[in-house]
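User: Could you check the structure of this?
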Amino acid sequence: MKHFRTLTAAFLCAAILATASACSPATEDTDILDGVSYDVSDYEVSGEAKLTVAFPTPATVPGGITLPESIDSSLLETLNKRLNNQSFGCAMYYYDIKTGFSISYNAERLFGAASLIKAPYLLYILDRVDKGELSLDMEMTYHAKIHKFGGTGSIKNMPDGTKLTLREVIEHICIESDNSAFRMLHNTTDGLMSLIEFHQNAMRDFKAPFVSNTYGSVLNAQGVGRIFTEIYHRADDGSEVFKWFVELLKEANANKFVKGGLPTDESGECIYEVAHKYGEDIKSLNDAAIVYYGDRPYVLVILTDYTGVYSQSFMNRISTDVYKIHQELTGDR
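Assistant: Sure, the predicted structure tokens are below.
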């Protein structure tokens, strides 16, 4: 797909070994493979995880930006210990959008997707809108027998036969994480793109898996991070469709994980805008975000195979650790 940027490799700068737990199956609140068998077992990762710091090649760094020769080892060690000392599986991917500097941990391991799958999926729907293949004003019909699905969202409570525009369906998906709205788009009876087709496109464009015959709907931190970076670029390049999408993600529910680890003003409001999508199920809690840090925005993805009393505080602390590293990278610390 011509719109999507070619993936480029960065030089490996440092690696800190850490322990990872094996990938385990999860039950997604998003359902929904519609009985189609598809396996991505080749992308499962086992064994040890590495906290990996990757500096970009100098030629790819924009003029006027100077990167430090190294990152304070105490900041990296704090992040490494926090990730490594958990009793549950976790992954992280941080990406400085302007320079390509990245830090990753367990970034290729598969986790249960839960509702985080919805934002990457919408990239492909909105790409078709951007190219004029679909219209946000096109009318869709809610058929309870096909589309009704439990969990988050209000469309499941609407009368059978309710008419909604594609714009309204997408708003329900982004703001409420509406499962029935999502099913209206991806079901194989009258949807716009199946999860299998989405998975194949995402693998082609971003090396990002989303479907596994073994584990159901899945994702990994690196793939999601690449797609959120693409979402940022599409909006930053001037697409009105993607500007609208980013604004919806800023309004998305449960914006308290990555955002909750960032500094606040005197009224308790976060001092940065954060566009995000989370996913939560009985065995996964995930968040992916674009943090609008002045002229140096960054992407942060945090995945876990645990939902419990410490989930939010863990993600908040990872976000805080990464924020301090980003300040070091930008010279603001």
